[in-house]
Write a structure and sequence with these properties.
single chain; 28% helix; 24% strand
């Protein structure tokens, strides 16, 4: 549970923005379990302006082919301090600090035959120059079979550990299977051997389902979708993705439905940009992410959140479902009176059952769900989680739902 700078600032986030969001989280959200502050892509690029990348632009790099923060955007990194001062500040607030990286080694290091720490091999010796990202020009892949490759990745995570990094989002990797599988394994081994505990998040999606066991052995979370934005079509499609991946959640491994595009978004283009999701759609999103147990990473500029947005992120009953759900899966997805609905269920680790009913159709409607659909016999005490209303001692739920909305229930 945390915040990532991509949805609101693209490649252009700076230290002041990171600090203001960290301060907001510490004051308003930490008590609800929110804890990670993650700086997304191209923090080494001095001239980054928005969500578009500058092709083949020079990046800030140390003598060992490792990218470092651009001092004009992250002033506390001056003098070779890297992200250590910013991470220390985030930690002082009781939060954790994360960064985005791209798979591979900087192209500029390869072209300059730059040094690699711990070996006499150079960046040119370990580069896999035919392995390039389709949407960003910063890096070449690394050939794990080359001498010096392991030393490079070890030196990367040695640097990140010295900065105090708690979370690494590695991009251009999750959907690059099977051809970059060995590089993922090498990177994961370097992280695990660096001496500091870090979460490893893999992007972008869609990660291939047939590599689920590889992801569970190498990472903590991996994207099951390409970039997720405030578009109902993308939210509707997420139900199918979650259905396929739900059997792989748990025990420190989390299929990732991507960030929550709520509140002020795309602030690098306009300060007036706000999520295009309706309130009902935002409730549906938080309900699905929570019962499915996706990581919850806030995408909006938090200092601009309104009362409704805060209510989404501070509902302790919904967040308890996110924390306590086990064995989540869809029960059915069907048309009722010409309108589409979906029913999900999960077990509460402390006892009881969670259920979530979604109206995926274009019309408001009322449906009755027998608790026998959840394999629960007899009558049970039911509480609706968003409202806190106690439904009563019942054997069936009669639920009225507006279009694109959801309700969630705790049943004992």
């Amino acid at each position: 549970m945390g915040w990532n700078s991509w949805d609101c600032y693209g490649a252009a986030v700076n230290e002041a923005i990171v600090r203001q969001n960290a301060e907001f989280m510490a004051k308003n959200l930490k008590q609800y379990g929110w804890e990670y502050i993650v700086v997304d892509i191209q923090w080494s690029e001095p001239t980054a302006q928005n969500h578009e990348y500058h092709p083949f632009t020079p990046l800030c790099m140390d003598e060992y082919s490792r990218l470092i923060p651009a001092e004009n955007r992250f002033p506390s990194s001056a003098g070779g301090k890297g992200f250590a001062p910013l991470a220390e500040y985030v930690h002082s607030l009781g939060l954790k600090f994360g960064i985005h990286i791209m798979r591979g080694i900087p192209r500029q290091a390869v072209h300059a035959a730059a040094k690699i720490k711990g070996t006499d091999k150079t960046a040119r010796d370990i580069a896999k120059t035919a392995s390039i990202c389709a949407w960003n020009t910063d890096m070449y892949g690394v050939n794990p079979e080359k001498e010096g490759a392991r030393e490079y990745y070890n030196s990367l995570f040695e640097l990140y550990a010295s900065w105090g990094v708690d979370f690494v989002k590695c991009d251009d990797i999750a959907r690059e299977m099977p051809h970059e599988e060995s590089e993922l394994i090498l990177l994961s081994e370097a992280l695990k051997g660096c001496g500091r505990e870090m979460i490893l998040s893999l992007s972008p999606g869609s990660a291939p389902l047939d590599k689920a066991e590889l992801f569970k052995q190498t990472a903590n979370m991996w994207r099951i979708t390409d970039d997720f934005w405030d578009d109902w079509k993308l939210l509707y499609e997420m139900f199918g993705r979650a259905e396929k991946w739900c059997v792989h959640t748990g025990a420190g491994c989390w299929p990732d439905a991507d960030m929550l595009p709520i509140g002020p978004l795309r602030q690098d283009y306009s300060k007036d940009d706000y999520t295009k999701f309706t309130k009902n759609e935002q409730i549906t999103m938080l309900t699905l992410w929570s019962i499915f147990r996706s990581p919850l990473m806030i995408g909006g500029e938090m200092t601009g959140f309104d009362e409704f947005t805060m209510s989404l992120l501070t509902n302790e009953r919904i967040l308890k479902m996110h924390s306590n759900s086990r064995h989540s899966h869809p029960v059915w997805r069907r048309s009722i009176d010409g309108n589409e609905y979906a029913l999900w269920v999960s077990a509460d680790k402390g006892g009881g059952t969670y259920a979530a009913l979604f109206n995926l159709g274009e019309a408001d409607g009322t449906v009755t769900v027998s608790l026998e659909d959840l394999e629960l016999c007899g009558n049970h005490k039911v509480t609706e989680l968003w409202s806190g209303d106690e439904v009563g001692d019942v054997g069936a739920l009669t639920v009225s739902l507006e279009s694109h909305c959801a309700k969630a229930f705790y049943i004992v």
